[in-house]
Specification:
Elements lengths: L3 H21 L11 H8 L3 H13 L3 E4 L3 E4 L4 H25 L2 H20 L2 H18 L3 H14 L8 H16 L3 H12 L4 H12 L1
Antiparallel strand pairs: 1-2
Helix pairs in contact: 1-3, 4-6, 4-7, 4-9, 4-10, 5-6, 5-8, 6-7, 8-9
């Protein structure tokens, strides 16, 4: 007989992952109300696991509750997003260097599979799916670094601005991911650290600032 609590946990995780990727990809932009009835129907879950998922998203700072109004995708100011960008541009190169030391063959295989998915999304011009795959690609690298503190910080803050980071063509981004994977495979510590810095920063801070200011108008 199935354990009811275990079933709810599984469904909650499914709902959490799906809603999180919808936020990361921009499918659910800041300020969007999370209508429980609609989400439950779309995700195929009942109210209990959905509420558990929303609670986790609140802990991740991706969702906030407004008194007597419900749960909404959280809004962050331009300054907030730029601060988060600075965190990512400092810590991701460090995590990439650690990953080059510790990454396993299985993780290399997972990155290769994601690269194939990424190319498919690029060819279809499916930007939302591409962004979600990009997030998964970077998450594997962070986990491979075996630095649990970097993983914890980036897992909490990177999703907040993930949809803002694709300020280059899909082709350029895809080629950069290919080079990152190549350097990780050959354990090129200095090169992969530099590649990651150029990938997530590369002088685009001012472009990000301009984009966010334009969106705020």
């Amino acid at each position: 007989m199935l354990n009811e609590e275990s079933v709810f946990d599984d469904l909650s995780t499914k709902a959490y992952n799906k809603i999180k990727h919808m936020i990361i990809s921009g499918e659910l932009p800041a300020g969007t109300k999370l209508v429980q009835e609609d989400l439950a129907k779309e995700l195929g879950v009942s109210r209990t696991p959905l509420l558990q998922a929303i609670s986790r998203l609140k802990s991740d700072l991706l969702v906030e509750s407004k008194t007597r109004r419900g749960a909404y995708v959280r809004y962050f100011s331009i300054e907030d997003k730029l601060h988060i960008f600075d965190i990512r541009s400092k810590l991701e190169p460090l995590s990439a260097r650690g990953a080059a030391v510790h990454i396993s063959d299985q993780q290399i295989d997972e990155l290769e599979d994601l690269l194939i998915e990424m190319k498919g999304a690029m060819d279809r011009r499916d930007r939302a799916n591409y962004i979600s795959i990009d997030y998964d690609f970077h998450t594997i690298i962070q986990i491979a670094s075996q630095n649990k503190f970097i993983v914890e910080i980036l897992s909490k803050y990177t999703p907040i601005v993930q949809s803002e980071f694709l300020l280059k063509s899909l082709e350029s981004s895809y080629n950069e991911h290919k080079e990152l994977l190549k350097s990780l495979r050959y354990k090129e510590l200095d090169r992969v650290e530099n590649l990651m810095f150029n990938h997530v920063d590369g002088g685009i801070r001012n472009r990000l600032k301009s984009l966010l200011e334009e969106k705020a108008k």
